C-alpha cells in the first residue's frame, strides 16, 4: 500500500492525458458523423479528465527531486485550469441553456489548447522519468554523477550505456555493457 501512495502520481497522471485527448477526438468525430452520442462521450471524457487533472496535480512530485518539475508543474496547473474551465462551461451550458458546446468552434479551439497543454505536460513528465539512452543521468540531490532515477532508463548499476564511469576508461569491464569504440 505504501508503494501505491508514493507512486500515486504516476498512476493517475494518465487519466487526464488519455481522456482530454479523447474528449477532443470524440467531439470532432461527432461533428463529422453528425452523431449526438459522440458529443456525450466527449463531455464525459472531459469531466472525468478534468477530475483526473486535479488528482494528478495534487499528487505531483516535489520540486527538489528534479529541476524539470518546476515547468512540468506550471504546465500541469495550466492544463488543470483549462480542463476545469472547459468542463464548467460545457456542463453549465448543457444544464442551464440546454446547449451542447461540443459543436462550437470556440469550444473546439479551447479543447485543442487543452490537448496541446496536456501533451506538453506529459512530455515534460516523461523527460523526468525516461532519460535518453545515450545521455548522462542527472545527479540526484547531494549525490554523485551517474545516478539513475527510479523508473528511468539505463543500466542496472546506474550507468548510462556508453558512458564512462567516474574512474574513466580504465574502469572494470563489468561497469558498462556498451561495446568499446576503440
TrEMBL record:
Q: Which residues cross the membrane?
A: 12-32, 44-62, 74-95, 107-126
Keyword Heme in annotation: no
- For region Disordered, the annotated ranges are 136-182
Recorded hits in InterPro entries, A to Z, give:
DUF2231_TM (IPR019251)
Residues of the DUF2231 domain: 7-131
Locate the compositionally biased regions of type Low complexity.
Answer: 169-182
* Alphabetized Pfam families for the sequence: DUF2231 (PF09990)
The annotated regions of Gly residues compositional bias extend over 143-155
Specify whether Membrane is a keyword of the entry: yes
Keyword line = Membrane, Transmembrane, Transmembrane helix
Protein name, entry field: DUF2231 domain-containing protein
Species in which this protein is naturally found: Paenibacillus silvestris
Amino acid at each position: 500500500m505504501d508503494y501505491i501512495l508514493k507512486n500515486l502520481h504516476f498512476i493517475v497522471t494518465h487519466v487526464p492525458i488519455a481522456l482530454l485527448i479523447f474528449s477532443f477526438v470524440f467531439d470532432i468525430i461527432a461533428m463529422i458523423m453528425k452523431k449526438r452520442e459522440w458529443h456525450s462521450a466527449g463531455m464525459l471524457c472531459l469531466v472525468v479528465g478534468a477530475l483526473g487533472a486535479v488528482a494528478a496535480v495534487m499528487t505531483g512530485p516535489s520540486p527538489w527531486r528534479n529541476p524539470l518539475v518546476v515547468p512540468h508543474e506550471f504546465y500541469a496547473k495550466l492544463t488543470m485550469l483549462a480542463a476545469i474551465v472547459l468542463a464548467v462551461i460545457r456542463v453549465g451550458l448543457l444544464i442551464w441553456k440546454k446547449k451542447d458546446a461540443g459543436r462550437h468552434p470556440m469550444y473546439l479551439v479551447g479543447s485543442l489548447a487543452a490537448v496541446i497543454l496536456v501533451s506538453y505536460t506529459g512530455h515534460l513528465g516523461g523527460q523526468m522519468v525516461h532519460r535518453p539512452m545515450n545521455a548522462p543521468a542527472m545527479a540526484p540531490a547531494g549525490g554523485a554523477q551517474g545516478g539513475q532515477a527510479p523508473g528511468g532508463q539505463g543500466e542496472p548499476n546506474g550507468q548510462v550505456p556508453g558512458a564512462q564511469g567516474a574512474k574513466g576508461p580504465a574502469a572494470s569491464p563489468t561497469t558498462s555493457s556498451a561495446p568499446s569504440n576503440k
